[in-house]
Design goal:
269 residues; alpha/beta; TIM Barrel; 9 helices; globular; binds zinc ion
């Protein structure tokens, strides 16, 4: 089983109320060796519209996690990360946030398309699901082209969690051109992708991303893959991690990665 969860949220994220200590203690109870907190920081998120800010108090966050890292050091290896919500015009702001402290790990994620949060039904209105999904996947290309301050791109097919029929009608062929373009940029920049088991939790039947996306990444030369539960509550920490090795092996991978000081370390599956 995978013993490192590299995508976790706590009370520092606008959409979680879980105390950081509870995240750490649950991870210890579940037998993890390493955990990396990655609370949300979505710069320029339309806060008024959604009544959520998604802005991380980076100073308090970093300081608090440094204290906890020390306090729990005999029980678990705590690493400090951030999930950065990306938009193509944010290169300067993201660079500033990413380099403010010596983080271990940064996830870059697409949560918005033209300031619309794809979590809400509004995003899917007035067009086909394939059109809505293509536009979402295109943000990965646009963001990856403009922003280099991240280590892995988060939950690549996140949009299939929230679309009208979720992944029921998902066919990789409908989006292959976009994924090839996005993955080439990610690989050329020395970045990776993640297995995000919230997909499994949300009923997709597999973790993000779909196996065809994973196979495409492999075919294009991609090697770096982290594993995260994207848990916002303690029950979901390391959710489904027992099935991840087989899922990765089925796509041809023999290693997953953990990050320290923004550098990947390969761990045999
Ligand atoms: Zn996310
Ligand atoms: Zn997340």
């Amino acid at each position: 089983m995978i013993k490192a969860d590299f995508h976790l949220h706590s009370e520092f994220s606008s959409d979680s109320e879980t105390p950081v200590e509870a995240v750490i203690e649950t991870a210890i109870d579940k037998g993890l060796d390493i955990l990396c907190l990655t609370d949300h920081h979505d710069i320029d998120f339309p806060a008024d519209k959604y009544k959520l800010t998604f802005i991380l108090d980076i100073d308090s966050y970093y300081k608090r996690l440094c204290d906890l890292k020390e306090r729990y050091k005999d029980k678990i290896d705590l690493r400090i990360g951030v999930e950065l919500g990306l938009m193509p015009h944010l290169a300067t702001e993201v660079h500033e946030a990413a380099t403010k402290y010596p983080f271990d790990f940064l996830i870059g994620s697409s949560h918005l398309v033209d300031y619309v949060d794809i979590y809400y039904p509004e995003y899917y209105e007035g067009r086909t699901e394939v059109e809505a999904y293509r536009e979402y996947f295109q943000t990965i290309v646009d963001n990856a082209r403009n922003i280099k301050d991240y280590d892995v791109y988060g939950h690549l097919d996140y949009v299939t969690r929230y679309g009208p029929t979720q992944n029921k009608n998902f066919r990789f062929e409908d989006y292959e051109d976009i994924f090839r373009e996005a993955l080439k940029i990610i690989i050329d920049d020395g970045k990776g992708i993640e297995i995000n088991t919230a997909g499994l939790k949300k009923g997709l039947g597999y973790p993000h991303p779909h196996i065809d996306i994973l196979k495409c990444y492999k075919e294009l030369g991609g090697e770096i893959i982290t594993v995260g539960s994207d848990a916002h509550v303690t029950e979901n920490i390391a959710y489904g991690f027992d099935m991840v090795p087989d899922y990765l092996k089925a796509a041809g991978f023999e290693y997953y990665c953990v990050y320290k000081d923004r550098k990947p370390e390969f761990v045999k599956l």
